[in-house]
Design a protein that fits this description.
InterPro entries: HAD-like_hydrolase_sf, HAD-like_sf, HAD-SF_hydro_IA, HAD_sf, PGP-like_dom2. It holds the Pfam family Hydrolase. This is Haloacid dehalogenase. This protein is an alpha/beta fold and 224 residues long. It has two domains: 151 residues, Rossmann fold (3-Layer(aba) Sandwich), CATH 3.40.50; 62 residues, DNA polymerase, domain 1, CATH 1.10.150. It has a six-stranded parallel β-sheet, with helices on both faces. Strand 5, helix 9 and strand 6 form a beta-alpha-beta unit. The chain is globular, with a radius of gyration of 17 Å.
Length: 224
């Protein structure tokens, strides 16, 4: 039996959500759009195309999408060399790997951004694959990223756990029939995460690590 521990990255393993909020806010502002940081925060976790549509609507000038995404990438890129890992992220991945879990990341990041995130996590020795936005036709909350991560891990949905920090992560896991665990590190309320499908909620990776023996991970280990 192959057990898979699937992880979102932004806001789950690396403390980047609020950096994304500020840089998206600035990208919208530069193009003349007044979008509140609150609304942007609620959209973090969506891929860039879906985020723009979610915030500006279907009747927006779609020719502007690429400019907005490029502006966000340029602004966010200024932080690539100092992205902070969340407390316990590296140790959590390594502990799960030592217990036989296959670690796969599921993220909308790619290219230099993904390299910067992996550098921040500093656990490439236990990360067995990455399902990025380039690998799927639809991003979260569609189940495609989770399905791709399962393929990379070689695991069935019943033998996997997905850890994320947004309602989009929880909905994607639920749609893929994978157990979902949420962290509060993305700034989303516990009730919202539970309503979206989280079976358990922890403060951060360190808290999940400290409760690993009573978590859904341990429950699955006992079914072997």
């Amino acid at each position: 039996m192959t057990r898979a521990a699937l992880f979102d990255v932004d806001g789950t393993l690396v403390d980047t959500n609020h950096l994304h909020v500020v840089t998206w806010w600035e990208a919208f502002r530069q193009s003349g759009h007044d979008v509140t940081m609150h609304d942007i925060h609620r959209a973090i976790g969506l891929g860039s195309d879906d985020l723009v549509e979610h915030l500006l609507g279907e009747d927006r000038d779609r020719d502007e999408d690429e400019k907005l995404a490029a502006a966000h990438t340029a602004l966010y890129g200024a932080y690539f060399e100092r992205l902070p890992p969340l407390d316990g992220a590296r140790d959590l991945l390594r502990e799960l790997a030592s217990r036989g879990w296959r670690i796969v990341l599921a993220t909308s990041a790619g290219g230099p951004e993904l390299k910067a995130l992996r550098r921040a996590i500093d656990a490439d020795d236990v990360i067995e694959g990455v399902a990025s936005a380039d690998d799927v036709s639809e991003g979260k909350p569609a189940p495609d990223p989770v399905h791709r991560a399962l393929e990379l891990a070689g695991a069935e949905p019943s033998d996997a756990v997905f850890v994320g920090d947004t309602v989009w992560d929880m909905k994607a896991a639920r749609s893929a029939d994978v157990r979902a665990v949420a962290l509060l590190t993305g700034g989303i309320a516990r009730a919202d995460l539970e309503d979206a499908g989280a079976q358990a909620v922890y403060g951060d990776p360190a808290e999940l690590l400290s409760h690993l023996d009573t978590s859904v991970f341990a429950q699955l280990e006992r079914t072997d």
